[in-house]
User: What shape does this take?
Amino acid sequence: MIFKLVGDGRPYPEHGLTHREWAQIPPRQVRLDSLVTTKAMLDLHSLLAADSTFYGDLFPHVVEWRGELYLEDGLHRALRAALHQRSVLHARVLSLLEEPQPGT
Assistant: This one.
């Protein structure tokens, strides 16, 4: 199995980070089999394009929420890594803290 789980949607709260703010997070290694995807659909044109990261961040974006790692952006890069027999990739990881419940 490539990913821990194939999800469809973002179960974590909106973080509102801009591309510039994402760029401030240093990349770290993440195991592909620890990631939960936030997209269930794949575009083969994007996967196979030679310049697919030309306009975007070189590193995938991962959100850590409630002990899970969600692949928010970079599904095609992660799959490309798997096709090259790599089990880890470098990604920018944003850790979201649990929001306090009202009345606590």
About this structure: The domain at 18-95 is CATH 3.90.1530.10 (Conserved hypothetical protein from pyrococcus furiosus pfu- 392566-001, ParB domain).
